[in-house]
Amino acid sequence: MIQSMTGFGKAEVDFSGKKITIEIKSLNSKQLDVSTHIPAAYREKDIEIRNILSQGIERGKVDFIITPDTVDKSVSGAINQTVVKNYYEEIKSLSGKLNIALPSEALSIILRLPDVIKTEITDLDEKEWEAVKHAIGKALRSLNEFRIQEGLMLETVFIDKIDNIERLLKEIDLYETDRIEKVKFRIQENLTLIDSGSYDENRFEQELIYYIERLDVSEEKSRLSNHLKYFIETLKSEKSQGRKLGFIVQEMGREINTLGSKSNHALMQKIIVQMKDELEQIKEQIFNVL
User: Fold this and answer.
1) Residue 213 pLDDT more than 90?
2) Architecture of the domain spanning 7-75+120-147
3) Nearest to 249 by CA among 279, 226, 273
4) Is residue 255 a contact partner of residue 214, using CB atoms and an 8 Å limit?
């Protein structure tokens, strides 16, 4: 079963008048790349948080966010008036230098800037940390469930595209005999235009066989068919194998390109273009697979 590297998980916990929200977002990446956005009170737990995430997430670019929200409004931060005044003087000075009017909502803007609200940083309570760890585990499970659901949707897309390529591959057989006959006729027609007279029939047959063998696509069709089957087998395996699927897609692309260079037939080339289009749609999504 494949999983997507794109996912989102969220969990909340209430502790001593605070509602603490945990959010984990992930996108595709070759390795595990974790960015944490945590309040100062939790900074000492940064390494432990990263270890928890590395055990629960295999690959992906991960953003981890802790957002504490005080439920008891009596425990609120005070406005740092000195910082507000300094921000205002800076904005006023910049406004004069640039000859731009002060914004009408200057105070509202300043109140959203860093360090305006003074908050008292206290040591992290171990009981609170245990509650937060429990929430992190819950958010991780939510993230992985999201990834599984996204993987199921990707699997449906891949199977559909592989089926289309397999169907197009079978259509090539319809033009095989016609293609060879046209090649033979074209060579014979060109030979009749030669003024030097007759040509060696045996030599002609030998050259024709050599030329037709060079245009033969049976090996390419067989290899492509095997790659299609192997892709589906890998898709259905227990563990998600995005890298392996990517390698198989590369091999499929090589065989389709060789079929195109050997086709020498307008309708066959049209089929090849359709196969490339289906494969390109697989490539667009394969990088999201874990």
Assistant:
1) no
2) 2-Layer Sandwich (3.30)
3) 279
4) no
Ramachandran sector of residue 99 (left: φ over 0; alpha: ψ -120 to 50; beta: rest): left
Under 8 Å between Cβ of 48 and 92: no
Per-residue model confidence (pLDDT) at position 110? 85
pLDDT band at 75 (very low <50, low <70, confident <90, very high): very low
The alpha carbons of the chain give a radius of gyration, in whole angstroms, of: 33
Tens digit of each residue's pLDDT (9 = 90 or more) over 76-134:
557 888 888 888 888 888 888 888 888 778 888 888 787 777 665 567 888 999 999 99
| Bridge-based pairing state of the strands 78-79 and 117-118 | antiparallel
Note whether 275 and 168 are within 8 A (CB). yes
Distance CA 246, CA 250 (A): 6
Token digits of residue 103: 């914004």
CA-to-CA distance for 109 and 192, rounded, in angstroms? 87
Rounded to whole angstroms, the Cα distance separating 124 from 122 reads 6
* Domain extents in the chain: 7-75+120-147, 78-110, 151-286
- Smallest CA-to-CA distance from 221 within 183, 275, 182, 158 is with 275
- Run of H or E including 138: helix 126-172
Asked if 18 and 69 count as a contact pair (C-beta separation under 8 A), the reply is yes
pLDDT for the residue numbered 285: 94
Angle between helices 46-56 and 126-172 (to 10 degrees): 30
Contacts of 241 (CB under 8 A, 6+ apart): 2, 234
DSSP 213-275: HHH--HHHHHHHHHHHHHHHHHHTSSS--HHHHHHHHHHHHHHHHHHHHHH-SHHHHHHHHHH
Q: Strands of the chain (E only): list them.
A: 7-15, 18-27, 32-37, 60-70, 78-79, 117-118
